[in-house]
Write a structure and sequence with these properties.
The chain is an alpha/beta fold and about 300 residues long. The protein has helices at about 15-25, 45, 60-65, 80-85, 90-110, 145-165, 185-195, 215-225, 245-255, 285-290, 295-309; strands at about 5-10, 30-35, 50-55, 70-75, 115-120, 165-170, 175, 200, 210, 210-215, 230-235, 240-245, 260-265. The strands form 4 sheets. A 7-stranded parallel beta sheet has the order 3-2-1-4-5-6-11, sandwiched between helices. Strands 7-10 form a two-stranded parallel ribbon. β2, α2 (about 45) and β3 form a beta-alpha-beta unit. The chain is globular. The two termini are about 35 Å apart.
Length: about 300
């Protein structure tokens, strides 16, 4: 594929930095736009090869100016972390909805034809599904974060219909990898296990998740950029359901830890995030791109441990 000039909001974060590094490796020119409130996870060598702009997606003029001349936008900027989102619902929704409107306006002003947007599997909410969720089921967003993400998916659909913008909403399923911080369950469990502290599991640990390896996620994002046009909502899922209790025991095993598994009550403000089941179907992704995530959880965990050595 011909090299493109690509604008990445939230490009210094966990998923964004891995995406940026892969885009640079593929020969694309990359502009990263991030407010750096959570630091910068882009590696040193990649930083020398990109243009970095510190800014907030709620600053419309700066978003428009910074994305001038770009061909594609990956819009990943968001307020992240269950506790942070739960404590700041207004800011969460403003960053999502206002940020998306500014990205859309930047596309119109600058003639950018494609946007890929970081949505979330959290949109599926508490729906009791007996099989892997597909993109066409009725969703059940419960949190400010999930509701704003769903609004933006609908907004992108309207932009495609009215303005002809190619728009792909990426429903990520519990992405994990070496750069993730311990606001998320896998790095938290690993840190506890390596310190010999109790591995703290919320509830009975029977709630399930579909953990998807970061490199598989990034590869899917880039394949969708390269191969797909029009408007689509696409799951990026590993299609492998596993419970949190099993995750804790697996991490204890691979770290050779003596930590006990300790079951604790989840904070009340986490209720809407603590769904009982979450497993996604990547059939649509495979149909559109010819591939889907395949890295198994234990293999991914071993890669994280190797990166931490």
């Amino acid at each position: 594929m011909d090299a493109k000039k690509i604008f990445v909001t939230g490009g210094a974060g966990f998923i964004g930095s891995s995406l940026v590094e892969k885009l640079v490796d593929l020969g694309h020119e990359v502009m990263v736009y991030d407010n750096l409130l959570r630091g910068n996870k882009i590696d040193h060598d990649t930083m020398k090869k990109i243009t970095f702009i510190k800014g907030d997606v709620r600053d419309k003029d700066k978003v428009i100016l910074s994305s001038s001349g770009c061909d594609v936008i990956f819009h990943l900027a968001a307020v992240l972390g269950v506790d942070i989102v739960a404590d700041n619902p207004v800011e969460t929704m403003e960053v999502e909805t206002i940020g998306m409107q500014h990205v859309a306006e930047a596309c119109q002003v600058n003639g950018i034809k494609k946007v890929l947007y970081a949505s979330t599997s959290g949109i599926y909410g508490h729906n009791a599904i007996e099989q892997a969720v597909t993109e066409d089921i009725i969703v059940d967003p419960r949190t400010s974060y999930a509701m704003a993400k769903r609004y933006n998916e609908i907004y992108l659909g309207a932009l495609n219909e009215e303005k002809g913008l190619d728009a792909i909403a990426l429903r990520f399923f519990n992405v994990y990898g070496p750069k993730q911080d311990n606001r998320m369950v896998i790095p938290r469990f690993i840190e506890q296990a390596q310190k010999g502290d109790p591995i703290t599991v919320f509830g009975n640990g029977k709630q399930t998740r579909d953990f998807t390896w970061i490199d598989d996620t990034v590869d899917a994002c880039i394949s969708l950029m390269e191969k797909v046009s029009g408007y689509h909502i696409v799951n990026i899922a590993n299609e492998n359901e596993g419970c949190i209790e099993d995750l804790a025991f697996t991490i204890k095993k691979v770290t050779q830890s003596s930590s006990e598994i300790k079951y604790i009550d989840a904070p009340k403000k986490r209720y809407d995030y603590e769904v009982e089941r979450r497993v996604g179907s990547s059939a649509k992704l495979e149909k559109l791109t010819g591939s889907k995530p395949s890295t198994q959880l234990e293999e991914g965990l071993m890669r994280i441990l190797k990166a931490r050595m």
